[in-house]
User: Fold these one by one.
Assistant:
Number 1:
Amino acid sequence: MSDHHVSFKDLPAGGEKFEPAKASKLIGLFGALGGLGILGSLYFFLNSATRPAFSYSWLFAIFFCFTFVCGGCFWILLHNASNSSWGVVIRRLFENLGVLAIPLGLLAAPLLFKPVNEHLYEWMNHHRTAAAHAAEHHTTVAEALHHMSLENPHLHPLVEKFGYLNNSTWFSWTTRFVAYFGILGFIAFTLRNKFLCQEKDGAIKHTIRARQFACITLFPFALTVTFAAVDWLMGLDYLWFSTMWGVYIFAGCAWSSMALMLLLVSYLRGLGYLQKVVTMEHYHLMGKLLFAFTVFWAYIAFSQYFLIWYANIPEETRFYFIRNTEGWRWVSIFIVIGHFIAPFVVLLSQPRKKNPKVICAIALWVILMHLVDIYWNVVPERAPSLGVDSVLVPNAWVGDIVALCAVAGTLGYLYLRSLGANSLYAWRDPRLIESINVKN
Amino acid sequence: MAATESASHQDSGAYTALDREPLVLNNRSFSWITNRICGIVENKQPFGWWVLFIPSVILTGIMAFCFVYLIATGVGVWGQKQPVDWAWDITNFVFWIGIGHAGTLISAILFLTRQRWRTSVNRAAEAMTIFAVMCAGLFPAFHVGRVWMVWFLAPIPNANAIWQNFKSPLLWDVFAVSTYFTVSAIFWYLGLVPDLATLRDRCKPGIRKMMYGIFSLGWRGANRHWSHYETAYMLLAALSTPLVLSVHSVVSFDFATSVVPGWHATIFPPYFVAGAIFGGFAMVLTLMIPVRSIYGLHDLITPKHIDNMAKIILLTGTIVGYAYSMEFFMAYYGANPFELQTFKLRGLYGPSTWYYYAMFGCNVFAPQIFWIKKMRTNLIAVMIVCMFVNAGMWYERYVIIVTTLERHLTPGSWRVFHATWVDITTFIGTFGFFMMNFLLFLRFLPVIAIGEVKGVTPAADPHAGESHEHGVQEDDAMGYETPASTYPGGVKPAATAA
């Protein structure tokens, strides 16, 4: 943290290796939360009375963690594609976050099965009925669905969007489900491997190749986030749509993952790691990006809300209508204040961004608000979809906490365990010294 | 040779840094930079300047004639008739406002993100903003019919106690654009102050010296001056950035708040902003590549600058492509027959589908050539793509506005729009007006921020040369060859750390 120029000889040979034993308490805590959460989740899944509500809990927990994985991939893609240097010292931590796409995919697998997704996605139930009719009458699912829509006009939109929203063609919801995790995992693994190779031979070509790879995969990444958001959240109400939806979810991904990185870097520094490579300038930069995405999220969220409110078209307003009813209304107001106004005001100040304790408190708040935002996006659909005569399903919040513990606890455990496998930063990256000595 | 050296160095287990490319070539000194940029203002203008200036003045005159004709005859001289009540006028307004937004956005956002390469292009981009917003403002002002009553748009109490409709995005546009123009002009002028003082100090006594003296506000280059200047500049950059976003978002609200199929899309605000950055960078390159050539600014506007801007055009073009695709996808996914029909008419079987293909081709496909490094450093290729983008951004607005209205919700009144000669000549005239202003800017004001560009030279870096690491240039490490024709005299300069 000194002001003198740090050179390569000032750094430990081979970078810094994380010793899991030093973080045994936190790893143990995550492991315990994950283990107990999975046991609890098994109970909720296997019990037919709790399964419908718990399906939403699981989707909420999976999607919450999915946004961090997407954020990890986004930051490494952006960092490489923009040829920037400042983040070299923290990039490995993002790479490890992106790599969690694969275990997250395994945890998300219950969503693929009928006993779970039949409570989440009404359209799937209609398709299943159509598939049964199709098998009976030796016709196609699309034709059977069309036939059903003649009797029930509410199904007509499903006929219109059959090409995308289906589970019976090669381009099905299930195929895409697998592809999303595959794409994210591929991006994160490939980029991390390039820099691990560089640690062996020191060749600059790996940096250049990583940049080229990042440029090429930015667009598939954008499509992945967009369509995952469409399939998993927008699909909860198959009549609702918004062209902004993918951008809205993306804004939350970038925002929350940067907050997580601030917490992680501070934790590692507290254990004695990264002392020579991460400076207050990095905190300032991360704080500025957190601020930028606070504003970006607000801009996107406001634009979406405002245009839907102003135009007042029933098929669009339903989304906000159920989130502006009874108790959810206060959550909506809380999100406006907590997700935008509070962090915006606090992050305006430069000294606060350079103070690790303050910025970590803000980062913690950001993650909490992101949690509320994802909860607000998923859970209000639960009561009306399950036919409960209230805005909330009684006692379902227990399942929400259990699911969150199961998914976040397991991923946290795996993440911290995996940190020890390689150096905490790319110690032979040709931009490392530039990164350490960054001034802004 | 360098590649071999660096390879052996890497294998030895040591550390090799990747040097940044220099932002000023040939190790140019401070005095060279001052002389070269001030020389543009102080010397007689080259032949190329006159070749551009005279036609620009003529076109400005034609534009003025068209407006006089419109006032004398009525707005009917433009081609819009029911149901296409907005046509070239609003298309041109959004086109110019998009370019107008990009300049300050480029300057302010690149400043806030500490992109040092901005110094060579920010001044011209800011100037472009001012002139483009002036061009944009002409269209709605004359579209009101009685242009002398345009002050009714301002919320000033008048004799009839008529107030504006504050619920209308069109009125928000008035506030947003006028605020933006004011802040952009101040931002541009503030950046000019130190350079105006430089020109003042170099001038012989006379009216020029007096004018530069007045506008340089007594600047002496003292530490206090610089300190206040830098604080003010950063604050204005921070103020400009949300303003830019808000203005083009408000322009998008003109359409998106409606329930017209094809206009009501929640993605419009960021989509319009991305389009503005895209079109703005294309226009900056369109202006700066000839300026670089005419005034010999190859050492200040380097292949690196052009490469960076080409990459941004590629990125933003792809973002715009994402927005086009998302609109189409949601028209399908939303299963609203009117929305879907609008997009089918736009892109598949309507009377103006070729505009849609032109838009998609120019804005999404043409920039894809920039995936190839050689194309990003080939000035002819860059200019051609920029021309495509300039045209494509106009087509985009035409597609959104005109092709939607041509096939609106009442098929009985469908009508294909045909532009009149007044539409066409007025629009071409605004290019003359824009160019005339830009050329006068070149004539009287420094086109590159002298003080700022000096700050990115090695001589301005107190820590230059402190690094102990062996460093290589990317092209040397990878064995790339930048075309020699890109450099002045066809000779690649020696690399220096920026």
Number 2:
Amino acid sequence: MDVVFVNLAGLALIGLIAWYFWMSKPTGMLAGITSDGTQEAFIVVKGGYSPDTIRVAAGRPVRLVFNRQESDPCSERVVLDAFGVSAELPQGSNVPIEFTPTEEGSYEFACQMGMLRGKVVVS
Amino acid sequence: MRDPVCGMTVGPDALRVEGYSEFGFCSEHCRKVFIADSTRYAHQTDSDSEGSEVAEARAEERAMAAVGSSSIHLSVEGMTCASCVSTVETALSAVPGVIDARVNFASNTATVDTAIEVPASVLTAAVVASGYQATEVVEEDDTSDTERVESERRYRLLMRKFWFAAVVSLPVIYLSYPEVFPGIPEKGSTALWWIWLAMGVLTIPVLAWSGSQFFTGAWGALKHRSANMHTLIATGISAAWLYSTVAVLFPGFFPDEMLRDVFYDVTAVVTALVVLGTALELRARARTSEAMKKLIGLQAKTARVLRDGTEVDISVGEVVVGDVVVVRPGEKIPVDGVVVSGSSAVDESMVTGEPIPVEKTEGATVIGATINRTGSFKFEATRVGRETMLAQIIRMVRDAQGSKAPIQRTVDKVSGYFVPAVMIIAVLTFMTWYTFGPSPALVYAVITMVTVLVIACPCALGLATPTSLMVGIGKGAENGILIRSGDALETAHRIDTVVVDKTGTITRGKPSLTDISAFQDLTEEEVLRLAASAEKGSEHPLGESIVRAAADRHLTLSEPSQFSAVPGHGIEARVDGYQVVLGTLKLMADRGIAAGPAESRLESLAEQGKTAMVVAVDGELAGVVAVADTLKDDSTEAIARLHRLGLEVVMLTGDNHRTAQAIAGMVGIDRVLAEVLPDEKATQIKLLQAEGKVVAMVGDGINDAPALAQADVGLAMGTGTDVAMESGDITLVKGSLTGVATAIELSQATMRNIHQNLVGAFAYNTLGIPIAAGLLYPAFGILLSPLIAGAAMAFSSVTVVTNANRLRRFKPTHREEVS
């Protein structure tokens, strides 16, 4: 009896793991517009990127300002591969990354090892 | 939402100040500044949001300045309060050309955005005038320093955590194996229960302090619905601890006596090992960026410049373009410039990778950070601060190290699924052992689950590519090879054909005298002296090469009179009373000079790809001189090296077939594409690609830009100090063909290293996880101890980084090493 119960619980746990890590819906935030027309978003780096999904409009310059608030070296660099930009993130400083997306789509930014991930959704 | 202090847009997670829910802060600093003067900032933001004219005007100014703007960083001293911040900002903003100035009170720095090139000295003067001290910060310097300090601090903390966990582990291990060690009370006795309780209590600080980063890291990731190495370790060590603690405190929970057991040793030992692994990995990773640190360390600190006629020592940040800098033997050249007086030999190896010192005389370019060896000289600064060649190199290398190699994109896809997949495998393992395992099934299930969680090493996978790339690209910079991206590096190792532009790459690109023969009773020297004297007024490159050859032999030239040029054929002039004619056979025929005896000589010279000219004196054949574009010293060796790498070398040139073949024969080139017009170069590359070849093009970074872009990998031969201007995936700082071979060797070595790392990391995980799950148990009775799993995990990522560091020993091959 308890074997059945343990296995059912195990299957439920597997389902929970798959759902929690793989089926998350991006929440995201809309980038603000600065006085010079740049779409700007501030991203805190601590165990991940907050917010991890930034929504921007195509054709306008985007500035993502990263602030790393942890000493874990895993997140010491952020790479936006699609736009060929990357930056080192010294702990506690604001580091801007600038680019102008021209085509709609979803572009990932991640730490160098690809463990922490976020994305820019261009529409 | 906007930060009212710095004006930056912030997310909902931003820091807050009670009572001002409408504001968020990007940093603790801004929050503090706001608290210090909340009325001002709260009010100022109100007026901002009304869209005041000032803000609009500023926006317009910014928009206009979007092109060609730059920012300068200043270190500001003497600020004591938040109001100092606004004083300095106002002073800087008032400087013409400044769009924006932001002062960071916490770090005592100012960032100034300028629309036009504003010298740092003007900005520092403005700060000084407002009552503070300021100096320009060359940004590369200070970040690397704080990083080094931060990394050292972290290493020491991890080592302290390791020692603590290790010390706790010793008694815990002893007491955990009554079947091995003597003197441990029997199972079920009260004494053992007390020992277990003590072990449980002892391991609490191991979890809470030594292993704290696993829990904070796991929690941070969990909030973002992601999982990492910390998640696995945290789950593993806490599962072992919780099971043990339940067995101690609530033995009734386990009806079967056999189930009442403790695994505190797993908690303590795995924590100790993984913490040690993390510390060692941190150490090793710091070494991967050593090349970059070396580059940064090359920057000179001070410069001796002439100001108002006297020599003054100033910091290198204060040198401005146009300053005359004095350099003595043994000193470091502080910035880029052009020699105005004096001469010396300069060791440029640290920037160009070229070991032999370079002679510098008036008019020569000098590179900042190189070392003056023999003489003293003065030079005029042409590039300072962020514009120097070294600063450009540092930026290029840093960007390249941050880029991704295509191979990593595949790994990234895997690593996104890796950790949750391991967690699922761990649960499946538990279920399988619980259902089918031997008694006590629950104990086996828990232990195998913990082993699976602990053995999986996502870090080894994640570190495999970036660390090798980091070392490889850094190593390139040490050898004067600037690789622009991971893409370029990866493509370079697949190259099978190298296309080389002849002029300026294989050859010097400047004709020089190669042969003289005399036909009358004149000596060869006399023939050369007369020919050179006649050519003295000529501006033709062939004429110049003859004059230069005469000067090299210290011949005294006479002034020619009645000089006349016959375009396309030669020249005539009177020298020392002789009528000298120099040119083609046709010119001789036109002048009625019999040149028959020279014909066979001319033919053989032309055969060798040389341009030969007949010299006649007073209507009689006197001699033959020949000039040719000569080979660079290292071309033959470089091409031999390319051949040894198994590459086909193709020469591309606008010259005629005969000249091209002659040069190709001398250096041993396989295939020649001659008579190619400059704008056809890219098409020729495309044709080679159509043959299925992976083509590298070597050429001048500015004139050959289209061909370099068309090639799979474009290698630009550096032509000046503006390395960032060169197009091309790889820039060779020293315009030498040997750099091409070295670049390809380096890319092959780096990609080999990456493959080793990836294969190792994949093999480790794909073998380790099933073994940990007990796959070998049914057949061989082999079950991995979680302690061994922890050790394997801890050292697998260290191994990856250590392997990447082996690349630091990369050396280009030389002729003597092969033989």
Number 3:
Amino acid sequence: MKFVEEYRDPDLAKKLLERIHKNSRKSIRLMEFCGGHTVAIFRHGIRQLLPDTIKMLSGPGCPVCVTASADLDKAIALADMKDVIVASFGDMVRVPGSYSSLQKAKADGADIRIVYSVQDALAIASENPGKQVVFVGIGFETTAPTVAASVLQAQTEEIVNYSILSLHKICPPVMKAILDLGEVNLSGIICPGHVSAIIGSHPYQFIPDHYGIACAVSGFEPLDILLAVDMLVGQIESGQPRVEIAYRRGVKPEGNTQAVKLMESVFEVSDANWRGIGAIPASGLRLRGEYGKYDAEKRFEIEPGPAIEPKGCICGSILRGVSTPLECRLFRRTCTPESPVGPCMVSSEGTCATYYYYQGS
Amino acid sequence: MCLAIPALIKTINGQQAEVDIEGVTRGVSLQLTPEARVGDYVLLHTGYAISIIDEAEAEETMKLLKELSEAN
Ligand code: SF4
């Protein structure tokens, strides 16, 4: 595939690794924020190929994993309502909430549809005028503009039985929250590639400016990631942290301004709950007042009751980069991708699932 | 979840386009990249093109990668 294959060239990767080995002197800790990066790093065995000076940590960049139990319970409560169809991306359906999961609700008769795109959810709404279709809006800035576009489309096409349970979250505030917690002593961050395709690289500028931490926006092929690591090593060794882009073919410094405009016209920033971290100010997106009729939380009375977290699951500290799945007593024993206890094992890019598939036994 | 893959635009009809991904044709929305043209590669995420791949920048990055590995 063009723009993929050439970034997997083993010869170039080997030479770039040699360069990183030669240049990396200080002992550093780098966090890859995005779950897609975690998977790519494990799939290509990058952690093992890096010098001992570089320790890689995985961050909270899996939207399924960071969805709080209480929010998932709302989706399940909606699915249990009469004449409601809940549409969701696949991974979300298997995540255990406090008492149930969307999958269990479906087995018990709830109408839950797995969709590949929010456009599919909109199509279900126009095909089922007698029902209410609620789309479970998860995802970061990469996905939120698509959901915003669907709301505008619903308005234009006068689809009235469509609404969003907006659990969308945005990235820079959680990066700040992790840095402020001070639990992980980071020297550099590999910034998410496709979030940045939308928001650009400027929103990370506070990280070098206020925290003195290096940043590189990366793509998802091995050479993209190695180039980002090389940039971070260069910044750290020279003592000049800044924001660089190792993924220029997909990311402009200013991002996709059209998509941001669209997202901001439908959504406004709100506080949000993150699994394992808790409430983070201004880290989520809710529908603006003028789009209130597309807001599932306004359209329905949702009372899911108090939330409980899966017992023994340490997803929360894994998402903060404090623990690894190997420290969880349930990992590989009670908790497997076939029978997941926590969300980090459900999502294909959750850190626990990634360790399960790629980290031997 | 933020996965996006390169796709080549074959035809455009209003805000919808048909793209080719390794020989497979799919419909995608261009609502987020209205300036995309036939022949552009876009990054496709959940049925939407989220950015147009910049071919000149791709070449620059390749050149940089080669320079860095030769400078060893
Ligand atoms: S292995 Fe399972 S139980 Fe343990 S932290 Fe991961 S998801 Fe939670």
